[in-house]
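agent> call fold_tool(seq_1)
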Amino acid sequence: MPYEGILDTNLFIRYLHDGTPEEKEKFRNLIKKAKKKGTTFYIPFIVVVEMVYVLERVYGLPKARVREMVESILTLPVEVENLDVVFTALALYEEENLKFGDALVLAYARVRGIKPVYTFDRDFRRFEEAKIL
């Protein structure tokens, strides 16, 4: 399927949280156009990382709400880089109360089967995939 383009973090933040009605409408129209054409947008992995950071750290949203918002973009005509890692990381982030960066490292270990995760971070001690040095 051809790509309509790449979507940047600020589009999602404004659509999901603090955009003006005009900005939200522009985003919706962009999505409608892609659906009509049968195209999709590409979302680089870093966009997901930035989205989680802004929603949690800048806007102070709880992890469950951040996860819900980020997962909601997957109903759009998009292809997310490392989607399997993203889903696993979002679950670990919320359910295990991890920082998103730590959740991503652990998600890569689980999804890609690359173990152990060597770390000095004691937050990993409860995970069998990790080896604390």
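agent> call fold_tool(seq_2)
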Amino acid sequence: MRSLKRKNRSEPESSVRDDRASQDDILAVIADIDSGHEYYMAFVDEFKFDGNEYVVMYNYEPDDGQHADPELIIMRSQRHVDGEQYFLSIKNRKELDAAFNIFFQRFEESGGI
């Protein structure tokens, strides 16, 4: 899926976020440019690895106590020359595994587990 970041509340932080649905959540509306479907996403982390930028996020739903724990999504992030930020699905399993390992290491170092 190629997607475009439409708007957000604030800029992403450099450390891994481990709080869910806090007042400071970094939220964005992500639009699939192929289907036009919009997704509300909360950002968890962003990092650079092997010359690429990655973002970790989850599908945001207000916490009303009835939602299952969110699933993490890791996507490659690219900024277009016009300033728009694009998120691309990672189709290569080795790249996805490597990005997840970097994220998990960062998560552990931040005291997440």
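agent> summarizing second result for user.
The chain is about 15% helix and 40% strand. The chain has one domain: 2-109.
agent> awaiting next instruction.
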